[in-house]
Amino acid sequence: MTPSTITPQVRVLDAGELRASHTLFGHSLHAGPVDDERWSRTTALYEPGRTLGVDGDGGVLAGTAMSFGSRLTVPGGGSVPMAAVTRVGVRADHTRRGLLRALMTAQLRDTAERGEVAATLRATEARIYGRFGYGVASRGRDLTVQPGATFRPDAPTTGGRVRMVTVDEATTLLPALAAGLRSRSARPGAIERTPGWWELSLHRPAADAARGLAVHTGPDGDDGFATWTVTHQGPGFAANELRVGDLHAASPAAEADLWRFLTGVDLVSTVSAPLRPLDDPLDLLLTDPRACSTSSLSDETWLRLVDVPAALAARSWGDAAPVRIGVRDALLPANDGVHVAGDKGATDPAGPAELECDVSGLAMAYLGDRRPSELVASGWWTAHDPAAVARADTLFATTVSPWSGTFF
Ligand SMILES: CC(C)(COP(=O)(O)OP(=O)(O)OC[C@H]1O[C@@H](n2cnc3c(N)ncnc32)[C@H](O)[C@@H]1OP(=O)(O)O)[C@@H](O)C(=O)NCCC(=O)NCCS
């Protein structure tokens, strides 16, 4: 039997194998192993029983994938339990033999058994995960803004102040502040940040030392925060880039105050902010809107709806009559069939599908990123009843762009 004809056996890795799994993942991204200090910060991300592995030739660990438990905010402000999928890698000498397929299949079943309604991930490459039912459900734009850009006189401000904080202070302050902002903003796509995520995120290796952490205080107390790194390109200070990591605030005015602060830091030639929400208002705040440009637009959240009925029941809907959607799901057959989007009581759920799509296509509309009419026009969805398309557009629409704002 050649290696490609053997069905890979997926197993749950035990605690003693997690570091080897992490090293395998790092190698798959062409990174070296982490040192003891970094590993001690990383372990909290690995929850017991959630790291999968596949052994390859000679019993060597050859492929791995893990997830940690989180929650996903859905349109309307509710949230569902979610698996945050990460640390996916296959040894270069074992690729294209079906190891990832075996890992993804086992992980989806495990996620369903845990009662998690969705799984999300960030993809290194866009051609990998669609076949497993994941679809792009939020996108971000990479912003560049000129340092010293002036703000319009009537751009909002709280009149508050920004103070820089240490890592220790941030460890105390930011998790609770971020959780409060997440529930207050109710932006679809936001996810719960776990203690393990914070541990890893706040304690960066020494190479990232030129990092800043700041909290904004408005009239009612702390109401926003920002994190950034400054990279030195070339000699002197002429080409320093300030790269924004986090920028979250309770109000447009607090957000504008944080932007004023970040664009006012000295000895910086470029301020960049990758993967900001599509509706980020920065250009609207500036005297010269061209001082802010979008260098690229890319996928952020890859969403897998694991329990379609529960996901549809959890989100709110726009004001239109419900539609019946036929969903195809090759990996989780419990999702296969006709589902109602909208108020269930207002339609005959046993009727024929008016629209049809793969579960990955449903994910693309679920958080409000893509309109069903776009998805029909581009062949992702099929319209059996053309009159249902406009209703679906109204039902799925959200008032703000979906965005997670959390990399994992
Ligand atoms: C991406 C990766 C995990 C795929 O692992 P793998 O074991 O080779 O994948 P499989 O053999 O199970 O392939 C499953 C399917 O995905 C396709 N596929 C896998 N990797 C792909 C890629 N990078 N680009 C396009 N298609 C890919 C395969 O062709 C196969 O297609 P099929 O369903 O039509 O047969 C592996 O190449 C890897 O470790 N890459 C570097 C690290 C990385 O990018 N990890 C992902 C982090 S989000």
The first-to-last residue Cα distance is 38 Å
In CATH, what is the homologous superfamily of the largest domain? Gcn5-related N-acetyltransferase (GNAT)
Binned strand content: 25-35%
What would CATH call the architecture of the largest domain?
3-Layer(aba) Sandwich
Q: Tell me the Rg in angstroms.
A: 23 Å
Mean pLDDT over the residues: 95
Poorly predicted ranges: none
What order do the helices and strands follow? Answer: EHHEEEHEEEHHEEEHEHEHEEEHHEH
Report the principal-axis shape.
Answer: globular
CATH class of the largest domain: Alpha Beta
Helicity level: 25-40%
Q: Largest beta sheet: what is the strand line-up?
A: 1-2-3-4-5-12-6-11-10-9-8-7
Please count the beta strands (DSSP E, at least 2 residues each).
Answer: 16
Number of domains: 3
What small molecules accompany the polymer chains? coenzyme A
Major sheet size, sense and barrel closure: 12 strands, mixed
- The CATH topology of the largest domain comes to Aminopeptidase
> Count of helical segments?
11
Structural class: alpha+beta
Active site: 129, 408
Domain Enhanced intracellular survival protein: 308-403
Domain Eis-like acetyltransferase: 189-296
Family: Belongs to the acetyltransferase Eis family.
